[in-house]
Amino acid sequence: MSIIDISEVRPGSHVTLHYRLALEDGADIVSTFADKPATLLLGAGHLAPPLEDILLGLKVGHHSTFRLMPGQAFGPRNAEMLQWVSLATLRENAMIGENFSPGDLVEFNAPGGGRYAGVLKEVGETSALFDFNHPLAGQALAFEVKIIGIL
Asked: Which residue range or ranges hold the PPIase FKBP-type domain (predicted)?
């Protein structure tokens, strides 16, 4: 019988940790430090792949903050992800009676099933401009982690 070494985070590990993702100016996006820790399965999409990659090789008790360059965690901003959508398409995707304002996150049905979302930037007479980039695309971020347990 062999003993599996689970002393460090590997692909497929269940990791219990506290984590904090913050903007470069220190504003929290998400943090578990004031609440109970999170348990994540690496590779299941709970964190963006670049954030999961940071966890690989870390050991129980590790606590540090990693600085991510603009675009490193959620990719660079892509100008082609700014798109005009006809108001007819917007109405097809809206809840009955829903009004949209710039800054709203609107979900759309994807061709072939599934959903995707964009942030409304402006509304014209016949179409609306949406930003389909991830909201954190192109941002410099801080990712603080404290590894509590690994299975």
From this structure: 12-96
